[in-house]
Amino acid sequence: MQNWLLPEYIADVLPAEARKIEDLRRMILDNFRQYGYELIMPPMLEYLDSLLTATGQDTDLYTFRLIDQLSGRTMGIRADMTTQVARIDAHLLNRASVTRLCYAGSVLHARPSGLYATREPLQIGAEIYGHAGWEADAEIQELARVSLALAGVTGVSLDLCHVGVLRALFEIDPGLKKQEATLFSLLESKDVPGLTTLTKSCEATTRDVLLALPNLYGDVKVLDEARKALPQLPGITRALDELQRLVEMAEGTAVTIDLADMRGYQYHSGVMFAAYVPGLPNALARGGRYDHVGEAFGRARPATGFSMDLRELSQLLPCAEPKRAIRAPWGNAAVLRTQIRQLRQQGEIVVQNMPNQTSEQDEFVCDRELVQEPNGTWALKKIN
Question: Are 117 and 106 in contact, with CB atoms under 8 Å apart?
Fold first, then answer.
C-alpha cells in the first residue's frame, strides 16, 4: 500500500475548500456571539466513562478508544461535543442562571454515519442551559435557521418530533420499557406490521396510540389530527402544545411533523428537530432537548441545543472567487519592504516571489504588481 493513502472516509481539505469552511466557521461563530453565546473549546479526548455519559448507543459505536499511557485508563476520542459542553456547564461553570455556550471543532467517527459521510466532521453548535421552557427550544431552532441562511442555504425545511408523546405512554403502561429499543426502532421505520405484533399484549389504549403514530406525519395539520387520535394524557398534551408553539415561531420556514421519528430517543428528553434541504437525504442540522445529561456530572440542568457539520455544509456552496492580489519581487531594500508592509496593513494581499521562482495559488489572482521605476521608487501597476 502506498504510504500516502489515507484511511477510508478520511480526506485532506485543499486550499479553496479549507478557506470556504473557515469563512463559514467564523461567520457562524460571530453570529452565535451576537445572540450572547460564549465560545468554549473542549478537549479532543477524555476518559471514556465521562465522554459516553448518557449519550446512547450510537455515540458509543462511533467512538474510537485508546489506552492512556499515563493512567492506564481507557480514553475516547470525541465523536460528538454535546456531552462535553454539558460537563463544562454542570461541573466547571456551575452557574445558577441561564448559560449560552457554543463550540466548533473536529470530531472523529469510528465508522461513517452515511454513504458519503466523512469520519472527521467539523462540528459546530450551540447550547442553552438552565431554562426548561419551549422558549429556549425556539431560540435554538431560530439560531439553526439563521446559521443556514447566513451560509447561503435556501429551501430549508424543519422536521419536528417530541419524545414526550411516548414517555407519557410509558407512564401508563410501564411494561413497554422492557421493549423500548425494539419499539423505537419499529416506530422510526414506520413498521406497522411489526408494531401490531409487538403490541398484541398491550392495553387497548396503548396499542391504538402506537399504531396511530406512524401515520401522524405531514404539515402542521398533523397536530390537530394527533389531538383527536391520541389520548389526552398530560404528557401528550404538553408535547403537542410545545410543537404548536414552535411551528408558530418558525417564521415562514416549511415545517413537517413526524411523531414517529424517534432517532436519538435515548439521548433526548423533549422536542427534537432536523433541518433538511431539497436533494440532500441527510439532515444539515440536528438538535433538541436533553435535560438529563448534566445529571451524570452531578447537576441536572434543563438543556437544549443543535449542531451541524461544516464540511458537509460547505459542499453545498459554490467555491468562492479567487481574491485579487498583488505580485511583488523578493528584495531586502527598505523602501520595497516598507511599501509591501503598508499595502498589507491596508488589507491588500501581497505575494512575494522567491528569487528566480514564480508562485502558484488557487485562492489568489495577481492582477497588479510592484514594479521598480528608474528613479528607484516602486509603483503599483496593473498586470495585462
Answer: no
User: Are the CB atoms for 186 and 201 separated by under 8 Å?
Assistant: no
Closest CA to 259 of 275, 277, 236, 290: 236
Per-residue exposure over 64-86, b if at least 16 CB sit within 10 Å of its own CB, e if not: eeeeeeeeeeebbbbbbbbbbbb
Taking a C-beta distance cutoff of 8 angstroms, is the pair 129, 302 a contact? yes
Give the start-to-end residue ranges of the domains of the chain. 1-153+278-320, 164-261, 323-382
> Is it the case that residue 281 has pLDDT exceeding 70?
yes
What is the residue-wise DSSP string for 203-218? Answer: -HHHHHHHHHGGG-EE
CA angle centred on 212, ends 206 and 217, rounded to 5°: 140
Query: Where is pLDDT greater, at 251 or 67?
Result: 67
Cα-based angle 98, 102, 106 (whole degrees, multiple of 5)? 150
Architecture of 1-153+278-320 per CATH? 2-Layer Sandwich (3.30)
How far apart CA 85 and CA 251 sit, in angstroms, is 29
Give the predicted TM-score (pTM) of the model: 0.90
Dump strand ranges (E) for 206-263. Answer: 217-218, 254-258
Find the helix or strand (DSSP H, E) in which 331 lies. none
